[in-house]
């Protein structure tokens, strides 16, 4: 089976579409999506710069989303914890951290809920467009490449997402 990945590898999904200059208002994410970029010199350093000094508390982010997935003869089972924490404070105990990309792909959240939710829903949109254009389902590898290409433009800009470490 041959899958055309030319769209996933196109430079419009890479860093070339992003200007790193201060004052950039938005980056276009396709025809109907626009993402506003914070109007600060270093978005990735904003929190640490804002909360440093003698009187400011240091923000210490607690890490620890647990994701498990098992393959067995009847399919796959995925499980994720449901707590959303903000440091030592538990913001919610009922967060849905498994997001359906399409009926055959699931994504899990680890990092900032807003970032993960937005980008995984956007990936679902891109996968559906791929399916409509190519009349076949997208592979897991191609979907992963689409997600990486979409978010890599924002490296160093404070995006809060965690990637799976290679085994």
From TrEMBL:
Q: Which GO terms describe its cellular component?
A: cytoplasm; nucleus; proteasome core complex
Organism the protein comes from: Rhodosorus marinus
Highest taxon listed in the record's lineage: Eukaryota
Q: What is its main location?
A: nucleus
Cell compartment(s), UniProt: Nucleus
Extract the InterPro entries matched here.
Ntn_hydrolases_N, Proteasome_bsu_CS, Proteasome_sua/b, Proteasome_suB-type
PANTHER family (UniProt xref): METALLOPROTEASE TLDD, PROTEASOME SUBUNIT BETA
> A Pfam family this protein belongs to?
Proteasome
What is the name of this protein? Proteasome subunit beta
